[in-house]
Specification:
heterodimer, A: alpha/beta, Rossmann fold, ten-stranded mixed beta sheet, 14 helices, 33% helix, globular, B: 280 residues, mainly alpha, two-stranded antiparallel sheet, 2 strands
Chain lengths: 320, 280
Amino acid sequence: MTLMTRRELFTTTAAGLALTQCGRSPRAAGVSNVSIVKAPGYTMEVYDTVYRLVAEHKLNVRGKRIVLKPNLVEFDPNTAINTHPIVVHAAFEAFRKLGAAEVKIAEGPGHRRATLDLADAAGYFETVPRFEDAFTDLNLDSVTKRAILQPVSQLKSLYLPHTVLDCDLLVSLPKMKTHHWAGATLAMKNLFGLVPGGVYGWPKNVLHWAGIAESIVDLHHLFPRQFAIVDGIVGMEGNGPIQGTPKQAGVLVAGSDVAAVDATCCRIMGIDPARIEYLKLARGEQNLSERAFRQIGEPIQAVRTRFALIDPWRQMIQAG
Amino acid sequence: MTAQRTDWKNRQNRDGGWAYNKGCSWTEPTVLVLLAQSVTQVDSESFAAGLRFLRSTERVDGGWSPQPAVAESTWVTALVALLPEEAIGAQRLERALTWLEGQTGRESSWSFRLRQMIAGNEEKYPVGWPWFPGAAAWVIPTSLGILAFGRALSRGGNGKLRERVELGKEFLFSRMCADGGWNHGSNKALGRDGDSYPETTGIALAALHRGPVPAQIERAKTAARRHLATCRTAEGNAWLRMGLSAHGESVHSQSEPAPRTTIDAALIAIASAERNPLLS
């Protein structure tokens, strides 16, 4: 049997210590506004709904460069894997109408390399006029290395695409889905798509080794100017984010405090947000209670739609 | 053919490399365009500029990074090692192979295996290649590693390369999906079967073209044919055709998806060549 080298022994010990480390300081949180609106289907009404959602948060977007980051995962058009193109186009139009100087759509899928084909299959070319002019494949964009100054994960730095590093506001447009590794995938987990596959590969496995929940939080901290609109009109329950089944929730959820948006989505899905690791790391368990946010629009009870969860998540995160 | 040659030149960046679609030069599309030129018609000026780009981006450790802004050698080194020796140079090629020899998935490290042993996990982790140093082994980088080492062995490489090829094949078979094809390497998640993809099925089949043909190959060919009938991407279509033709099956799909990117166009040219430079 070959013995470990001193370096390997050190790495093993350090990794063990990192895994047991405690006392991570979550980002300070105040009272945040989170909007909930009913949206029964992917109709033309979504355009007006999304405009009102963005407008009521009084974002200063005039003259600013906006990047919309949808969730594009798979080709299957018969399920609810990808953010619906109408939601993306509605956000595109809303930010333009509110005076943004530039609105781009950008995504770096984690599994499929042919991003343009994927976007086409998801209906983006059909729905968004001149889609290719507005779109950047974040897997293949030019990159710069960014240090992570106070990492929560084991990452020290990440190469990140210029398109998102240079924008004034990053708008996460995820699908409301359950996730077999993270419990739920919403606006924060959607940031995995910012990490360039062209550098790290498909899937973006360095993030898994650094800790999925911790990497989500590090990415979240790297982009302090965010807004989120979660497509929960038809979400995905069960074995998400790919093999689950569509779940009609009929809702859009939005806000500038992305962790608060995700916590609200969890409540809508029947998941206890205090049991989702990345939300605890981002906000602290004490700042995830319903009272920590100011809900605008519909109350959670009016839109609550319990999403089916697979084991072991059913026991771990389902709200009582 | 002329249009194709002109197209390569028009898409070429000033630094001699090619982008995936638009923007800065990357190693992967640059290698694939050079290979595509080698099987269509070489534009000597464009080809030389492409090689100059690659020579200038070789890293001191003997590997290549995905693009010049990245200060880390990665999986693309295997692609460079698939260029003809006379084009990239014997010494560069040797350095690339040596760098690749030192790369394994993180699950093969002693530290990981020790932790698994302590945790009582007896699962075996066959040795493959990662996309990025420090990450796990996956299907595409392992397939390209096998192809690169297989090429070196055909020139008379050493026994270590042969051992890595065999280990790489073992890795691929261990990651085969229940449907007979491959995805990136997660054939199961939480006990549930994962679905295979066209491009990964094609590339894994291509990597398994040398040596004895185990029974699993027939299942893989069936999966490849099934994917080919519905594949929507030029990249997937090209790799499926390469994978099947590597096992003696000449395939012309009914409708080939149109290329959208430079690597799509390059892969179609390579897959359509009588003598595939990735497999020969």
